[in-house]
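Hey, quick one: can you model this chain's 3D structure?
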Amino acid sequence: MLQLNALFQEIKVYTNNVEYKVNKIFLKQVFIFYNLICFCITRYYLHKTQIMKTARIISVFFILFLSVFTTSAYTQTIWNVKKIKGSIKFDGVPDESAWQEISPFPFIVQQPTYGGIPAQKTDVRLTYDDNYLYLSASAYYSEEGMIKAIGKVRDFQSGSCDWIGIGIDTYNDNQNAEVFYTNPNGLRYDGTVSNDGTPGEKEPFDPNWNTFWEVKTVVKDTIWYTEMKIPISSLRFESIEDITSMGFNIGRYVAATNEMYIFPDTPYNWGSHSNVKPSTYADGIFPGLQPRKPLYVSPYILTGFEQTNTLDAETGTYEHQQNIVFEPGLDVKCGLNSNTTLDLTVNTDFAQVEADQQQFNLSRFSLVFPEKRKFFLERADVFEFCTGGPNQLFYSRRIGLYNGEPVRILGGARLMSSKNGWDFGVMDMQTGKFDPLPSENFGVARVKKRVINEHSYAGGMLTSRIGTDGRYNLNVGADAVIRVIGDEYLTVRWAQTFDDEPHEGTSFMDRARIFVSWMRRKENGLTYSLLHTRSGLDFNPGIGLQVFNDYHATAGQLRYNFIPDEHSVFQSRVPGLITYIINDIRDNSLLTYYLAPGWSFVSKAGWNGAFNLEYNVEVLQENFDITEDVLISDGTYDFWNLNLSLSTPGNKAFKLTSNLITGQYYDGMRFSPNLSPIWNISNGVELGATYVFDHLDFPERNMTLNNHIAGLRGLYMISTTLSLSGFIQYNTAINKVISNVRFRYNPKEGTDIYLVFNEGRNTYLDRETPALPAYSDRSIMLKFNYTFDL
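Sure thing. Here's the predicted structure for all 790 residues.
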C-alpha cells in the first residue's frame, strides 16, 4: 500500500496540461520482489540436483542484473499544447492577450547543480495555428549587466552568450530531433539530433542543418524577450485521427552564472548531451495540427574567375590556366505528402562551403573529415550505418570529392519518408568525369523500422557505385539496435560487398563486415561498452569509410561518473579505462593494442579537463612512412605516453582549449601540443586561432621531424543578415598557406549572396625542381540563390 500511495503521489495536474510520472523505486522493487520469488521456487525444485550450485549463481546474477538495470526508468511528461486564439503581432515582445491564455512551462536547474530552483525568472510559452508553431520567452535577470549577447550570424555558437530555444522530436521516435535556438541579438541557430543524443558511434548533434523559420528579440536592462515563428511546412510529422504528438523540450542558458534551465525535468545523467536527448522530451499533444506539403524552388547562379598552375609532365614546366566561370543550377524540395519529401538537384554546387581544417597524421588510421555540404546533411542520421569507430557503410564525402578536389555533380535526387515507425531514405547522384575517375552513379537506400520498443529498430542498407567504364561496387547491409532493458543497448550490423573484382578462392566472410556491441547509454554512475568488429580481406565499401583494412578488433570502455553534491566545485568526476586490440584477419597476428586508464572532470565554473596514461603496442608488417624523410621500420614496438587536455570556462569572453600528447613514440619520443584560443572581442567580432605542433625525435637513428599547423579565424558579424569570415591556415607538411574568405548576405532564409575567395599559396618555392609557382590555385566566386516558396 505504501508503494501504491507513493506511485499515485507522483501524478501532478496543471491547468489545461497533464504530467504523468513513473516511480522508479516502485518499479525496481517490483522487479526485485518478483525475481526473489522465482529464485526461491527455483532453489526448491533444484535442491536435490547436482546443478543446485550453478542454479544459485545464475539466479543471484539474474536478480542483480535486473536490480541494476531497472533503475533507469525515467520520467514521461505529457503536455497539452493549446492552439492560439486571437492574433499575434510578431515583433519580439509577447504582450498580446492571446499569449496570456497559454500556460508557461515550469523550469528546473539542470546544471551546474541538478534539481535546484532557477535563480532567474523564465517565462516560456508554446502555441500554434494552422501555419506556424510559435514560441515566446521572457528572460528576466536579477541584476543589470547580466545579459550576455555575443554573436549575430546564423548558426554562431558560444558558451559566453545567453540562449533560449526548443528541441522538437517531430516524429516522437525518441531518437531524432530538430533544435531552434536564439540569443538576445536575435540570431538563428538550428541543427539536428540523432541517436537519442548519445555520443559513441558519432557526434549526435549536427549544427550544419538549416530550415525556414524566423525570430525577433527585444532587449531591456534586466530582461530580454523573444518570439519564434516556425512554419509548419518546415517540420515533418504525422497526424493520426486529427491529433499530432511531438516530443519537445525547452532550454535556457544563463552565461553569467553558467546555469542551464530545462523543461521537462531532465537530470544531468547524460553529461553535456542531457539537454538534447529526445527520449527525455515531453510528449506534446497538438490537437488539429496538420502537416503541410512544402514546395521550395531554389535556382542559383555562380560566376567568377579561377586560376591554376599545373605541372606538365611532358615539358617539365608549370602551365598557367585561367578560366571564367558562369554556371546556373537548381534545387527543389517538394513535400509529396505529410510524411514524404523529395529533393532534386541539378548541377549541384558547394562553392560557399568553408575549407576543411588541416590535419597531420601520426597514426596508422586514415584521416576523417566532416561533411559540411548542406544537401547531404538533412536527415543524414537515416543513412548512418556505423561499422565501428568512424567507419561507415555510407560516407557522403565519397560523392563529389576526390583527394580533396571537387568533382562536378551533374544532378541527383533524394527521397525521405517516415510513417508508423518506418524510416526510409533513398539517394541517387551522378558525377561528371574527373581524371582518373569516370563519370559515376552513386546510390544509397536505407530503411529502418522501430521494433520491440520505441528505442529499438531493425533495418537494412544498399549502396552502389557504378562507373561508365563498366566498373561497379555494391554493398548490402542489415542491422538492429535493441534497447534490451534500461539504458542497455545491443547493436548488431552485417555488410557484404559485391563488385567486379576477381574473388577466386575467397569465402563469403572475406567480403563481409560484422559489428556487434553492447553499451550502457548514460553518463552518470557506471557506464561501459564492449564491441567486436571484423572486416574481411575483400570487403570494400565503395562509397563508405574504412580507416583500417583486413582486421578484426575488440574494444571496451569502463567509466564511473561521480556527480558530487551541491557544495562541491566539481560538476562531474570520471575515472575510466579504454582498451582495444586489433588483429590481422589473415593469421590472427597482433597489429595494435591500446590501453588507457584516465580521469576527467567538469567543474561548476565551466573548467574541464582529462588525464590519460596511454600504453601502445604496434606491430608493423612493413615500413610506416610518416613523411618522405621520416619512417619507422617494420617490427614490434611498445611505448607509453601521456594525453592531457584542459579547457577554460566557455562562458567567458576568452576561452582556451588545449591538449598535449607527450612521451614515447615507437622507438623515439613525441611532443605534440595543441592550442585553440577563441576571443569574443565584442558582440559582433570573434577571433580564433589554432596551433598544432608535432615534434618527433629518434635519437638512435639521428632522425627528427617538426611539423607546424597554424590557423587564424576571424568573424565580423555586422548584423544577423550580413557577415564577413576568414580562415587562413599554414601547414608545413605541405608547405602551403590556404586561405578562405567569405562574405555573406542573408536577408531571409533561402536567399543568399556569397562572395568567396580561395587561394592555395606555396612556400619554399625552391624545394622542388622546377621551382614551384607562388600559388597553386586561386579563385573568386560570386553566388546568388533565391528560394521561391510555392
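One thing worth noting: The first strand starts at residue 12 and ends at 14.
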